Amino acid sequence: MARVHMTEAETARDAADRRPDPGPSTAARLRHAFVRAGGEGRWRRGLLLALFSVLTALLMALHSRVPNRIGNLGSLVETFLPWAGLAIPLLLLAALLRRSATALVALLLPALVWADMFGGLVTDKRGAGGDLTVATHNVNADNPDPAGTARQLARSGAEVLALQELPGRSVGEYRKVLAEAYPYHTVQGTVGLWSKYPIEDARPVDIGIGWTRAMRATVTTPGGDVAVYGAHLPSVRVKFEAGFTARQRDVASDLLGEAIAAEPVGRVVLLGDLNGTMNDRALASVTSQMRSTQGAAGDGFGFSWPASFPMARIDQIMVKGVEPVSSWTLSPTASDHLPLAASVSW
């Protein structure tokens, strides 16, 4: 009978083979469960959505770097810049449908940038009272009901009212209807000013377009003199072959800014259709020295155009040397613009 001799090493291996298998480690089991639940995929999916979120944030934060050399693209982006926020809920929905954790985290970036830039406009900052209430309205040269528009504006409660795009054939109707509420008025070219207080030193402001579409006047209020500017800057166009054409508007803005900078009266109010928003770099010569009443004391964005579905605030009330108290949008008239109003204090 043969005897089997085993070494110590062989005996140890044989004992190890007989021990129960401990199975995978705890870390391995957790990783396996994570993968089975789709966790790893949630971070790998949605990279393209995350990229779109980063690009949206960069567009808003660096909008001033978008060049204007090609079709005034930068100004076009800045005109509708608040609407870039619409990308956020769309990207959120896509991230949820894609079940992408990466896309959800990346979405925080444009959300924070938008909130920093425009979040303050969403809150209601309107106050009560004020020393002077003003209003402005582009009444539209083709307005089918100038008398009705004038009656509606007369009920606005404004003490100073500026109108733009006044056609010669309709000036008489505006004068007739507004005469009772506003005993003082002046019309310079296609812009006009109506006031409950005396108007002095009314004159055109040259904005380089060959006819009068801007003016200034001194309004003598019970609290002192106020220089009131009424302006209608040239229109801008979006053309397929030329992009956002606004050169004439930009030149007019610079000339208007120079006139306001040289104004000797300390209290200044600008009322008008500037065909540009406060974000538009082309209006910097004006916006850099004045405050928007909507931004300082309004409720929401105060979009004014087009009246049927307002998408941009191209009509403006800006001030210098006075404090905005409240700013709001008035009810629609027969014009394609909405009228605006604001109250200010000394």
Shape: elongated
- Biggest sheet layout: 6 strands, mixed
How many strands appear in the DSSP assignment? 14
> Helix- and strand-based class?
alpha+beta
Number of helices: 12
Low-confidence stretches: none
List keywords for this structure.
about 350 residues, alpha+beta, 6-stranded mixed β-sheet, 14 strands, about 35% helix, about 25% strand, elongated
Characterization of the model:
The chain has 346 residues and is an alpha+beta fold. The protein is built from twelve helices and 14 strands. It has helices at residues 8-18, 26-36, 39-44, 47-61, 73-79, 87-98, 101-122, 146-154, 168-178, 247-261, 284-287, 293-297; strands spanning 132-138, 160-164, 184-188, 191-195, 199-204, 214-221, 224-232, 237-239, 243-245, 268-273, 291-292, 315-320, 323-329, 340-345. A six-stranded mixed beta sheet has the order 3-4-2-1-14-13. Strands 5-6-7-10-12-11 form a six-stranded mixed beta sheet. Helix 4 runs parallel beside helix 7 (101-122). The mean pLDDT is 89.
